[in-house]
């Protein structure tokens, strides 16, 4: 990677720092050495181990940011806390790496193949509840990918022979103290340490103007001492200074918290002692909440990853908690640092793991756990149904954004539907969510949930047709042509049995699509032209109708009928524009760019390709982006700009790598790519080609898309 590459241009997905980071200089210095890829003397798996609330995640993120420039293939943060079921860690890593995996191979094999030649750092956050899955995945990837290192956070170590454990202790009260070795925090007249610095900063947020001085330093130190220097406990306590004086805070904590000596006297060792201290501190914050605030806290624990106000009102209201009170109560919990605003979206909220766990315990104690999980399922099932109903409209892009944002909650809802053993509900949920996941880039998740419901012999009806269509369509995008053929046949039979003419048209897409990809173009043409054209609907079936026409356009194109291909693509583009939908329209623009290129209209080819790239990227359609980038590079080099074409080829190569299947393994597409590369070499020479290609490889995905779509100046 060129030395002038900025942090924003490097690959990776580290979230931005939203609050000041305090202390940990010693730990960060040690991690600087352990995470240095040039130092082969250290192990490639480092695990930050410590009790809940001690700050493992924030330490890992800051260490990863400091190390980012040393990993040319990026630093990637994988958040595991939203996972509710086993077997999903690999899925979470695929999503974090933005791999739009098309293959049907085991996810570990896909990751091993993609990471084999990469130099990357992967941060696995909150491993303790999926520890066996994490250990198995890391073990496989350490063997398969010698340039990859892992930084994990967990309450327990992963158990790998080469694992290096870094104990994350509480913050010291005074400078020079080692965290965890001064449990009583005896004052020695030194400079205030990290624990007091953290308390002072968070106290100033709760009570503007707060500073540590002669009057406040003693009580503040006492509070930190009582809380064992645990950062989360300190932050929760400091947030109370909006309503309590510092001395009142100290006195109330003194009444609530047992002393370390009391706990040690009954044989409790240091780890559980600190866990109990944190639980007690959270419990004390819980006691200070009003009853309805406690109830909301408990009910919010059902969300995975994050939630917005509308979801909180719908899922958490009821009984003594009317929906109209939830906005004010939610703000109160934010003020008390119990609920946090999301790192990247101020309209969304989240709970830290320890706080969520406490709320979940209370929800169980209240006897409301199943009720709230079913309400959560109902909310996200309704959301998915709305997305399918309006997918083929001008709201499509908004729905795609919601599906991506709510992915963790949709996955949790799907898990709930499957665990309830309610066949019709599970089928309906999987049909809706599976369709949306297929179109928003989550192919593995879609296949996983659809396979589970379709092997349970579901009852005939519209839900079954939708689920079968989505399953066959997933197989098409994954290149699983045998699976596509099998599921397409069942889908067509179910559509004919249902007697819905539009469903039969939709089913012809998956039937004709697998024939098209197998190269059986004459048979595909018969299927795709053999259904009666019907008014295009607004829902998922309307999208299927447009995809039938797209497959027909591609069939004409591969048969050399450019006039027929253009007529159908123009028809789809016009219908897409009239509706405001983008998914089918982006593929129509892509096909038109191919036709323009074949006919020698280079300006039109570049224009249509750029339009397609923008829409594909907005809809998380990595396959569309990759394919269109190759077309754009061919158009650009044909105009004489070999340097830009070389960069575009490199950007496209990065995207194809994420798909795990270069040019879909299509001989025609691979031949076109090689012809473009040869022409660039001829135009600018090998040395210039290599330099420009490396500049393209150095671009982040976002920078590369902007460079391709907007025609921004080259490096």
TrEMBL record:
Residues 1-21 are annotated as: Disordered. Transmembrane segments: none annotated. Coiled coil: none annotated. InterPro entries: AAA_16, P-loop_NTPase, TPR-like_helical_dom_sf. It comes from the Bacteria. Residues 21-143 form the Orc1-like AAA ATPase domain. This is AAA family ATPase. It comes from Streptomyces tauricus.
């Amino acid at each position: 990677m060129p030395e002038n590459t900025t942090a924003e241009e490097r690959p990776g997905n580290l979230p931005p720092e939203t609050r000041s980071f305090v202390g940990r200089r010693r730990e960060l210095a040690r991690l600087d050495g352990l995470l240095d890829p040039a130092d082969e003397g250290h192990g490639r798996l480092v695990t930050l181990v410590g009790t809940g609330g001690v700050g493992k995640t924030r330490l890992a993120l800051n260490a990863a940011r400091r190390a980012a420039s040393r990993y040319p293939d990026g630093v990637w943060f994988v958040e595991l806390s939203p996972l509710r079921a086993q077997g999903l860690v690999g899925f979470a890593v695929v999503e974090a790496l933005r791999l739009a995996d098309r293959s049907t191979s085991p996810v570990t094999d896909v990751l091993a193949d993609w990471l084999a030649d990469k130099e990357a750092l992967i941060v696995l956050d909150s491993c303790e509840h999926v520890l066996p899955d994490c250990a198995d995945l890391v073990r496989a990837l350490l063997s398969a990918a010698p340039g990859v290192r892992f930084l994990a956070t967990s309450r327990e170590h992963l158990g790998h022979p080469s694992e290096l454990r870094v104990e994350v202790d509480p913050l010291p009260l005074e400078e020079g103290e080692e965290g965890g070795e001064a449990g009583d925090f005896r004052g020695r007249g030194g400079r205030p340490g990290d624990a007091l610095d953290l308390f002072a900063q968070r106290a100033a947020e709760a009570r503007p103007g707060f500073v540590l001085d002669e009057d406040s330093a003693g009580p503040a130190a006492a509070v930190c001492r009582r809380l064992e220097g645990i950062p989360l406990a300190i932050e929760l306590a400091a947030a109370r200074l909006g309503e309590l004086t510092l001395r009142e805070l100290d006195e109330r904590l003194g009444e609530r918290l047992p002393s370390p000596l009391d706990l040690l006297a009954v044989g409790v060792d240091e780890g559980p002692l600190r866990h109990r201290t944190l639980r007690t501190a959270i419990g004390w914050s819980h006691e200070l909440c009003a009853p309805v605030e406690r109830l909301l806290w408990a009910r919010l624990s059902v969300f995975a990853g994050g939630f917005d106000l509308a979801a909180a009102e719908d899922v958490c209201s009821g009984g003594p908690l009317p929906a109209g009170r939830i906005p004010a109560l939610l703000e109160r919990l934010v003020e008390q640092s119990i609920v946090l605003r999301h790192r990247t979206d101020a309209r969304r909220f989240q709970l830290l793991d320890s706080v969520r766990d406490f709320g979940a315990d209370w929800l169980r104690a209240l006897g409301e756990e199943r009720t709230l999980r079913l309400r959560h399922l109902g909310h996200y099932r309704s959301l998915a149904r709305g997305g399918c109903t309006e997918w083929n409209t001008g709201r499509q892009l908004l729905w795609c954004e919601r599906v991506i944002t709510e992915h963790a909650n949709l996955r949790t809802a799907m898990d709930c539907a499957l665990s309830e053993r309610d066949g019709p509900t599970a089928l309906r949920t999987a049909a809706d969510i599976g369709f949306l996941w297929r179109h928003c880039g989550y192919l593995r998740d879609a296949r996983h949930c659809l396979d589970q419901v379709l092997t349970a012999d579901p009852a005939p009806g519209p839900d079954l047709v939708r689920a079968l269509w989505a399953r066959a369509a997933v197989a098409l995008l994954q290149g699983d042509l045998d699976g596509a053929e099998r599921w397409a046949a069942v889908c067509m039979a179910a559509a004919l049995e249902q007697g819905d003419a539009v469903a039969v048209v939709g089913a012809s897409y998956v039937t004709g699509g697998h024939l098209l990809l197998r190269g059986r173009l004459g048979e595909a043409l018969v299927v795709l032209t053999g259904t009666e054209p019907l008014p295009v609907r607004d829902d998922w079936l309307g999208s299927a109708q447009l995809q039938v026409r797209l497959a027909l356009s591609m069939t004409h194109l591969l048969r050399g009928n450019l006039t027929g291909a253009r007529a159908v693509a123009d028809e789809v583009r016009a219908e897409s524009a009239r509706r405001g939908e983008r998914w089918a329209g982006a593929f129509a623009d892509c096909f038109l760019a191919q036709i323009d290129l074949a006919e020698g209209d280079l300006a039109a080819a570049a224009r249509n390709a750029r339009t397609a790239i923008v829409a594909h990227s907005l809809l998380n359609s990595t396959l569309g982006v990759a394919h269109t980038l190759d077309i754009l590079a061919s158009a650009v080099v044909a105009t004489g700009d070999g340097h830009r074409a070389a960069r575009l080829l490199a950007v496209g190569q990065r995207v194809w790598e994420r798909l795990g299947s270069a040019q879909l393994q299509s001989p025609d597409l691979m031949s076109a790519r090689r012809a473009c590369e040869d022409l660039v070499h001829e135009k600018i020479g090998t040395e210039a080609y290599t330099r420009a290609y490396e500049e393209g490889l150095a671009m982040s995905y976002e920078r590369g898309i902007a460079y391709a779509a907007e025609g921004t100046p080259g490096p």
